Amino acid sequence: MHLYGTQTIENGHLTIGGIDTVELAKQYGTPLFVYDTSLIRKRGRGFKDTFEKLGVTAQVAYASKAFACVAAYQLAAQENLSLDVVSGGELYTAIKAGFPEERIHFHGNNKSIAELELAFDTKIGCIVVDNFHEITLLKEISEARKQKMSILLRVTPGIEAHTHDFITTGQADSKFGFDLNNGQTDEAFAQVKDHEFLCLLGLHCHIGSQIFETDGFALAARKVMKKMGEWKQAHGFECSVLNLGGGFGIRYTEEDKPLEPHVYVEEMIKSVQAEAEAVKLTMPEIWIEPGRSLVGDAGTSLYTVGSHKSVPGIREYIAVDGGMSDNIRPALYDAKYEAIIANKADKEKDATYTVAGKLCESGDKLIIDAALQQAEAGDILAIFCTGAYGYSMASNYNRVPRPAVVFAEAGEHQLVIKRESYEDIVANDLPLTLKKG
């Protein structure tokens, strides 16, 4: 049985951060997300410490779309991480969390005027510019305010990561960024390089998700650095920042073979240093954006087992009190997970069940044919590695309240997001005032 971070089995129960998960389920109810914050800290330090050890100036920005809340942002701030936000809502949450504005980077392919104005009001550290429409808006806003703003240009380098393979042609068809190969990036550069208020720092790229190799990052670094070299030679302009994005993989099942954070960083640095020498550039500051790799395997979902259905010769079902409303990834991406019965964690996994959710959809299955201990109504099911894109993609489908979230570390636990109530669900509803025709 693979355990993550501080997880242990004590007195037959799964523990996280020194806390019995069965007791957490009793205290806070289920469904419940439990985050091992020690593991989040360890992952963040694995990236940051490698840059520092190798003497490379860098920013490690938490890609917070993976899981965003006030406490998560405050944890990132404690670890001296930067922050990648992709909406006005995430930016507002960062402000409420007291996150250092100068370390906030704002992404997105269709930022509204209100969102951009909030970024200027907040004086964030950088806006990652995605398209020509955004350049126009940024010029108008910055000129009207006579306010400077640092920017990166997001580019699509023509590299797409598919699990272990890297394809160098397909990525041109993307909703994000300026194409590096058809002249769009050069046109964007021409529009911003001499602007009075927009301060171009460099380029950003992102090649995919759940990446278990370093080859794609190396290839992307070479292609983007080559463009930077062309700009220096042709225009005397030298970029100070290269952002290589995120996408670092984690282990969901035994099929996944992720690398440790330091391996990704070391290989990135080698590639950027080699290319800087080749194109005669000063070594740029390297920015990266881990999201899933910081919080994914630090999160565990706890559910209470309810009904059991046997389809003789075909399948055994158990149903839990959550489902696609708190984890849409299995239905959306065919995502795979592993699980245990938390209150029988020391028992042999001698049963196979398909774990069904309670939502009124036939596709609401969290795990198909999961190896588990014998399950009974009232047992606590723990599904591992749900920390990324579980709560952040949760919904009120079927008017199901979103779960509570707890942080656990060193024998202490804290509620960081309250469980929604039925009253919360109807809070924004308004009564009908139209007259019957």
Automatic annotation (TrEMBL):
Annotated SUPFAM superfamilies: Alanine racemase C-terminal domain-like, PLP-binding barrel
UniProt domain Orn/DAP/Arg decarboxylase 2 C-terminal: residue ranges: 33-387
Residues modified as N6-(pyridoxal phosphate)lysine: 65
Highest taxon, organism lineage: Bacteria
Binding site for substrate: 292, 329, 333, 361, 389
One example GO MF annotation: pyridoxal phosphate binding
Cofactor: pyridoxal 5'-phosphate
A GO BP entry: lysine biosynthetic process via diaminopimelate
Active site: 360
PANTHER family attached to this UniProt entry: DIAMINOPIMELATE DECARBOXYLASE, GROUP IV DECARBOXYLASE
Family: Belongs to the Orn/Lys/Arg decarboxylase class-II family. LysA subfamily.
Role: Specifically catalyzes the decarboxylation of meso-diaminopimelate (meso-DAP) to L-lysine.
Protein name: Diaminopimelate decarboxylase
Lineage start: Bacteria, Bacillati, Bacillota, Bacilli, Bacillales
Gene: lysA
